[in-house]
Amino acid sequence: MLATRRFKSLPFAPLIRRNSTAAEPPPAGGHSPTIATSQLLRTTKERALRTPGLVWNDDEPSNAIVSVGRECRKMNVYQSVRDALSIALTKNDNAAVFGEDIAFGGVFRCTMGLAEEFGRERVFNTPLTEQGIAGFAIGMALMGHTPIAEIQFADYIYPAFDQLVNEAAKIRYRSGGQFNVGGLTIRTPTMSVGHGGLYHSQSPEGFFMGASGLKIVIPRSPIQTKGLLLSAIRDPNPVIFMEPKILYRSAIEQVPIDDFELPLGRAETLVAGADLTLLTWGTPVYHCETALHMLADPPPALAPHVPESLRKAKVELIDLRTILPWDAEAIAESVSRTGRLVIVHEAGMTAGVGAEIAAEVQKRCFLRLAAPVKRVTGWDTPVALQFEKFYIPDGLRILDSIVETLSY
Amino acid sequence: MFRPLASTHRLPLARQVHLGHLPHTRSPLVPTLSFFNSVTGSDEKIPTFRVLDGVGKPVDGAQLPEIDEAFARKLYENMQLLPTLDTVLYNVQRQGKTSFHMTSYGEEATIIGSAAALELDDEVLGQYREMGVLLWRGFGVDSVFAQCFGNQDDTSGKGRQMPVHFGSPAHHFQTISSPLATQIPQAAGVGYALRRSPDRRSRSIAACYFGEGAASEGDFHAGLLLASTIPSPTLFIARNNGFAISTPSTEQYYGDGIASRGPGYGIDTVRVDGNDVLAVLSAVREARRRTLEQGRAVLVEAMTYRVGHHSTSDDSFAYRQRSEVEDRKRIDNPIARFRLFLEAQGWWNAADEEELKTRLKADVMKAFKHAESLAKPELGELFTDVYAGEEPWNITEQRKELTGLLKKYGETWEPWRTELARFKNKGQDLTKA
Question: Is A218 among the domain residues?
Answer without folding.
Answer: yes
